[in-house]
Amino acid sequence: MSNTVLKTSRRNFVAHKGRMVLSAVAVLLSVAFVCGTLVFTDTMNTTFDKLFAVTNSDVTVSPKAAESGDEAPDRGKPEMLAGPAVEQVRKAQGVKSAEGGVVSMAVTVVNARNENMGSTTGAPTIAGNWSDNELKSMKITSGQAPRGPTEVMVDADTAKKHGLKLGDELRTIAVTGDTRARITGIATFTVTNPGAAVVYFDTPTAQQALLGAADSFTHINVTAADGVSDEQLKANIASAVGADTYKLQTAKEAADANRKDVGAFLDVMKYVMLGFAGIAFLVGIFLIFNTFSMLVAQRTREIGLMRAIGADSGQVLKSVVVEAFLLGVVGSVLGVGAGVGLAVGLMALMGQMGMQLSTDDLTIAWTTPVVGVVLGVVVTVISAFVPARRAGKVSPMAALRESGTPGDKKAGRVRAALGLVLTAVGGVALYLAAAAEKAAAGSLWLGLGVVLSLVGFIVIGPLLAAGVVRVLSGVVLRPFGSVGRLAERNALRNPRRTGATAAALMIGLALVACLSVVGSSMVASATDELDKSVGADYIVASESRQPVLPQAEQALRATPGLDHVTAYREVKVTLTAPDGTSEETGLGATDPTYAKDIRRKMIAGEHAAAYGAGSMSVGSLYATKHHIKLGDEMTVAFTGGNTVRLKVAAITSDEGNIDKGMNYISTETAWANVPADRLPLPFMLLATAKDGQSDAAAYQSVKAALAEYPQYVVRNQADYKQALKDQVGQLLNMVYGLLGLAIIVAVLGVVNTLALSVVERTREIGLMRAIGLSRRQLRRMIRLESVVIALFGALLGLGLGMGWGATAQQLLALEGLKVLEIPWPTITGVFAGSAFVGLFAALVPAFRAGRMNVLNAIASE
Amino acid sequence: MTTAMTETRHGGTGGHAAVAARARKVVKAYGSGETRVVALDDVDVDIMRGQFTAIMGPSGSGKSTLMHCLAGLDTVTSGQIHLDDTEITGLKDKKLTRLRRDRIGFIFQAFNLLPTLNALENITLPMDIAGRKPDAQWLNRVVETVGLAGRLKHRPTELSGGQQQRVAVARALAARPEIIFGDEPTGNLDSRAGAEVLGFLRRSVDELGQTIVMVTHDPVAASYADRVIFLADGRIVDEMHAPTADQVLDRMKDFDARGRTS
User: Which CATH number fits domain B2-261: 3.40.50.150, 1.20.1290.10, 3.40.50.300, 3.40.50.2000?
Assistant: First the structure.
């Protein structure tokens, strides 16, 4: 018997494959997104692993305080080792070779036209000395290694990207000054370099250009003699030079450290993308659910017959589940394949943006297809379970009844009650979130509210359909007369189906609306704060987190027409409050003019007073926490400098986001207590034009002054706001792009519902055509039905999403998101757009309906 | 009542000489070569205006095909069909659709009504599609004639099979078409409900001057007609005026007998 069940399932599956196509595509897309993400991130990991495996020597010796990771050091110079250390290390047992290395990431390389040669994707620019260690990962493919102070070698990817040739001049900008050199060689990575721009000098030039000191290194590359393990070598070196003098890392440790830096970023990316895949899956569930509901409804008589001749309800249920299983397997297997394709596509896209990845490194872990198929099959079977159970409940009497699928009239009081309760509880949770005093508790309420209100809307959707679709039709379909009315009735015919179809679209659009509300509130809040508090005209900072070099600062200070320039540094200190608690933190060390540049709201005292000798200011959060009053004395231990007592001369309000929680001292105070070579460089400069100066002219001259330093961006207030807006906009666009998948699946759902409805209503369509409905009217009727369903989904989604967004803003008001801004152009655009989505989704079903032969349609069962 | 009907029926015959629809040398064939099947073989027929015509014949005789072709639902292989002065053979889908909408009424055996519309909306549907306002007086009269006044707001699922067919009759009548085609309109009804529907069709011919063509295999249904046309193997083989059910039954038995012997 179970064989028969399998056989019917398989035959049904094959017979209705046309009706399954869109469901299969939904499974395929979701699985593809999951697998694509996994393959892509695994490939990135492989790429970095391979890179790190060859770039580190057996043991690397570096200064104790050396930074790890890609951050440019805030002094503009890496930590150094004195030259004799190399000799010392070389004498350790088991050392085959020890070679001093120089490498710095606090550099900017520009060509003759002052264009930055660095990556735009966040990968670093690295300058170093050309050494044997480099030969493990690179080979010179053109010209020769650099020799002398005027020769430089560049990596092939960078050369290609910027059209650099042998003989071109490159200027390497470091804290120690600019180094101009001609390209004498181009070296190609033998592994995949994901995007760093790399230049090499010979060792003396690198020492001079990057460290400003002869016979100094940033690290020592040590190679082990034959038969000596890396661990053994490390132990030997430790005993030779002292265990605590230097940081010693084996190749593996160094690679692990490198990987940890990149891995964290890759993990975040992976989980974000998987999150979006999850949303696509969620939307896909509705599509699959609808497909099976409709197939079961259409097959009611057939199922009744099976029941009448003796199949029990379990067998019927099983036959539908098996069908879903087959669908899941087909969709998932195709999805895994498509996922690999997607990963390759993503890699190509990254390549376009300047991040080189090679398909040679394409990594497909065995878990990837397993995860994809299991997920796809499980989700499909779960989605089909409710319709399958409904099929099991079909009575044998159904075989005898007149065909035709009665509408699901009583959507159910239980459903209504459940939906209302869920929505109400969700609403209360959202209200609590908005009213929350503490961000942590509030975000819990927010999460709960979002989930409950979403589920509530999904449950209640079919009930809302009746009212909302009527109202929408009254407005939108009125001009279309009787065809419009037919469309409305069709949309209302099966509220559960309409509800599920619209819910799929609702989910995606709710997220779009929510994020766009939060995004535009962010921009509005930041703009508002900038307007209120920033007095400076121009802001100078690096986009690649490079500190502002002294030569750039001087250039700016020398610009005519400026009233003043303020440098903003952050010095590391250990701060001890009068109550005895201490913490490591940063102090904002600025010129006193900063009080004019940024109008901080004060709790006590004047901002400017913080810049007096022996004085500082603290933020209100810190002050409240540690009960600090004006006149209290703080103990400030400057890292690498003196420990002094500073008097609290001002308390700033921490209401806003600009410099939230920042404690200020004057640059003078920092200079007095930190040795000159340990003082960090400013990370930002603020400039203000003299009164009476035309803004355009001053802006122009400030830009001109810094033209030689393309790593810094100069912005006036308007451009700064625009940049902020662009940044948020870019982020939102990325998120919309990822949500696009969920929306595509939702649109497929609309297509699917319409296509299956058209099949289901074949006879009706035949009848209407017979009594005089023209093809054009028929197609219009189907399009209008689609439009109404889409608008219904959009209305629910946008409404829900705006509610979430407004709640989130209320909650984030605690964090400075003070202004609620509903982006009406986006919201109305999305609403109008969804009407087009509806039109688009109806294209094929309407076309097919129009093509139906009237006689066959009437005669069809 | 039956007596009265019979009398009026006789009175109606021959009163109108004008032809509402005519078919000349109509051939309808499917497939080609060896597998060619001829459904209509050189059929000539005139449908008289203001008459109730029944088309009969055994299964596969081509009676439904003939009706579909006359109604512009199906295309012919060769020959001409005229509806009044309009030649409908060769009309494009758009014009045919408009012709069906404005000049023809339909009653099918089953599934005549849209489940999403109530009875009244179903009745006025062809006019709504055309964007015309129904003539309220006429509509009232039709609704009264078919006895649906109390059920106009009901959905098809809330009506019995007989009531549904009466709604279909009302729809066919409401737009005042030149001709109404019925495809076994009582095929799915019990004899009482069937008699009711046939009675309305008869009255609409007698009282409203409607032209009706009906395909049926039921001699009783055919007996309501003014004229019965018999088809066999795609040809018109006989016709009968003012038939009774017994006459028709005898004629049909003849077909059966021949069908068995041949």
Answer: 3.40.50.300
